[in-house]
User: Fold this.
Amino acid sequence: MNNLNDPPRWNIPPGAGGRGAGAGDGNQWNYALLVPMLGLAAFRWIWTRESQREIQNAKAQYDKDVSLIKSEMEARYRATLTESHRKAATLELELEKEKQKVKGYRQALISQSQHQMEQQKQLQQVCLGNDTELDVLEGSPTPPVVTADVRGM
Assistant:
């Protein structure tokens, strides 16, 4: 009759090193360690493949994120650069306009001062002419105009 609680040679009895059937070649120990080792090797192989796949996916996602951020930063840089060039050009135009205004004001000031000098000369001539007419009418000679400094002599 079969005794299911004690099947022959299914379990390794303690201390079976040199006795019993098949004890000389150690087949039971070899087979007993083979299955867990195969299981561990399969688990390690699967784990390594999955880990490598996850690492590759993470690297791909990282590269994608870095390239996206890089392109965004370059776009911002170009926009900022374009805006600053635009502002610089606008400021240069305004500066040129202001320079033209200053040049116009300077020319107007020069023209006005020349006009005032001419008016002053005309007024002096009119005044001298009026003085001579008065002198002629009164009959007295005109006093001489002193232009040199007499104190220095």
The mean pLDDT is 80. DSSP finds one helix and no strands in the chain. Residues 88 and 94 are 10 Å apart (CA to CA).
